[in-house]
Amino acid sequence: xxxxxxxxxxxxxxxxxxxxxxxxxxxxxxxxxxxxxxxxxxxxxxxxxxxxxxxxxxxxxxxxxxxxxxxxxxxxxxxxxxxxxxxxxxxxxxxxxxxxxxxxxxxxxxxxxxxxxxxxxxxxxxxxxxxxxxxxxxxxxxxxxxxxxxxxxxxxxxxxxxxxxxxxxxxxxxxxxxxxxxxxxxxxxxxxxxxxxxxxxxxxxxxxxxxxxxxxxxxxxxxxxxxxxxxxxxxxxxxxxxxxxxxxxxxxxxxxxxxxxxxxxxxxxxxxxxxxxxxx
Length: 280
What we know:
Elements lengths: L5 E7 L2 E4 L3 H14 L3 E4 L3 H7 L3 H9 L2 E2 L4 H9 L10 H15 L3 E4 L3 H14 L5 E5 L9 H13 L4 E4 L8 H4 L1 H4 L3 E4 L3 H6 L7 H5 L3 H8 L1 H11 L3 H13 L5 E5 L16
Parallel strand pairs: 3-4, 3-8, 5-6, 5-7, 7-8
Antiparallel strand pairs: 1-2, 1-9
Helix pairs in contact: 1-5, 12-13
């Protein structure tokens, strides 16, 4: 891949997703983290598209993000139906382990924000057993209200920077992932990635949908059955608004309007590379 590759963006109404494969996503994130440029990755799904219709800050966050990875099969299915370039789902949960393997290989320090202490500690144990030499430099499981206590969110990200992190995993709900946008300077030169419940899935604290269920696009239904009290409003009232966007895309495609554009990703190092582990 070229030093600063040009990628294709697929527009989903107010948001977009980059048309990349899983190996490409891992490579782009690792190279960006090593470059010292920092920045953040978002993972659009129907929830994000629906919220983007009414939330100007979320739209601004997507314009600012250096990489956007499709985290929902409806987006991928729409792209395929319309003959667009996005062909593969790259969810945070699927990205996690390949990315951790790459971080171990390249010596990129990792920090977790948002998951519970028990989940973070269990993840540390499992990751160290799975990936020799992985550099886990800490976690912050403090609770904060992003709107009413922004200083606490900024402080959590600052602790990641102080710990020398180059990858910061924000294991928080979608609304709280705006912390990566609001406080980007607090964790730079690290790359922040919205990971949602990924760590809880990884350690078995929350059961993830079987792969076949995820592949056919019904992971949301599986999650709804697990946590109906927390998720019913999101999945049954809010997310369906995104289908209006998908229908509009079909109309625009039939009219010959462009739904894709090119964007160049800056990966050239601006800081000394992260030193390799001793003995490597």
